Amino acid sequence: MSRSPCLVLTQKGVDLQFRGQPVFQFAARDEPPLLGAEVGCLGDHAAAMAPSELERYFQTHELRQFTPKTTVERAALLRELDEVRRSGIAFDDGEFDPEVRCVAVPVRDFAGRVTGAIGISGPIWRLSLQALQERSARVREAAESLSAELGSRAAAET
Fold it and tell me: pTM (2 decimals)?
């Protein structure tokens, strides 16, 4: 079992897995996505989900607590997702794994839709909060560059 996040092709879509456990599923369009927003950075790009998709998720899924820092209260999670939407960047300081920090930025296509995210993660002993902040600019640049390649006008204007 890998300690690194990995993508796994499944019958329902593609799972982002960590330590052998699915934490986010990129599902077929007609199925509600598995949120995983309580899982941290890449999951926080659930902020791109339509409100109806989020509501459908909350009606059918319970938010799980992975660490003491995991947000499992719906109103608090919605506030966090609003902040991710506003800022365009998600941080995780031990929300899924107490020894891991990460930052992720969405990648957008020509229509402005979020099609993925670019992020970095590392152990807390090597990726201090200051280092995470410093590296977040490079992550944002990489996501904006890829978005521009996919035709995103917002990325091309920056």
Answer: 0.69
